[in-house]
Amino acid sequence: MEILLDGPLSRAELSRRVGLSPGSLTRITKPMLESGLLVEVAGGPTDPRVGRPSQPLDIVPSAHHFVGIKLTGDQAVGVLTTLRAEVIASAELPLPDHGPTAVAATVAELTKTLAAHRDGELSGLGISLGGQVVGKSKVRSGSFLNWYDVPLGQLMSAHTDVPVVVANDLTALTEATHWFGAGRGAARFSLITIGAGIGYGLVVHGKIVDSPESSLGLIGHHPLLPDGPRCERGHIGCATTLLTTEAVVTQVGEALGHEVTYDECLDLAIKGDPAARHVVDRAGFALGRLVATAANFTLPDRVVLGGEGVRLVDVAHDALLEGLHLDRHPESVDPPIVLLDASFDEWARGAAVIAIQTFVLGS
Length: 363
Prior knowledge:
This protein is an alpha/beta fold. Helices cover 39% and strands 21% of the residues. The strands form 5 sheets. A 5-stranded mixed sheet has the order 7-6-5-8-12. A 5-stranded mixed sheet has the order 15-14-13-16-17, sandwiched between helices. A 3-stranded antiparallel sheet has the order 9-10-11. A hairpin with a 5-residue loop joins strand 6 (75-81) and strand 7 (87-94). Keywords: Kinase, Transferase.
């Protein structure tokens, strides 16, 4: 894992990190070098003990390929990656039928399409979706697909010989952000996603904070505005009623008297439409308060914002800062805020990272 994340590394540095003697390290890395997974690269500092340059070890990213697929309520979005989660190709297919067997067939078709862009066999397939996943295989509940107790991993075995792992989409995105993305190098960071739902991920001491309840979307009902709309559970001004793309679209559409898309809402706000500006700024203010809550409770090195609704951050930037500063101590420093790409490719890449962790590292 050390070489995968931070390579190339000298043998001395690798020995220090993993706590192995040089002899033990040689025994472990020798078969990896012989198989082509690891290589010696030039450019290391001179080793004073032998008077010649050392040869750091690095992985060969193309030695393994993975497919990651994110399932939404409408489509399957997939990417093909290397061992370091570098995206080689992307593709998507619609999900007109939410039946588990039909979805499994669509995933298999998308996997085949993506696999055509690489040489050799696939090392793993990761599938992520919004919902509760148990045993890295069974979907206990998936609200966007209306699934309950669906053995997705087992269903996939009828369509492919590639090893399959299933994960909650937010967990997968958090891991990808931690290992290969905007959270890399941060001992502590928070991830907040806004889109069809509201998600929260947390990494502390370099490890994701996980729980069986992580996939329940608990942050979606965190109260933000005392005079906000009421959600279906009776909560007033919770994150779901203010920050989801559906909430913004519904409120702007009702004010204008006709249907609008999410991007149209934001574009109207930029142009100064009063109704759109009010809704969008209120959402930005609420997001600022949510960021402040995360920062106050977890003291993160940075806050990462993502999801298909993340464009809100730019359009309602001033309102976001107002909400953030309202709930922060005047002497506190704003946490660095980093934005992820709004596309679902980021989520699909997260699914690929779960496959890398599972089938290469055994985690």
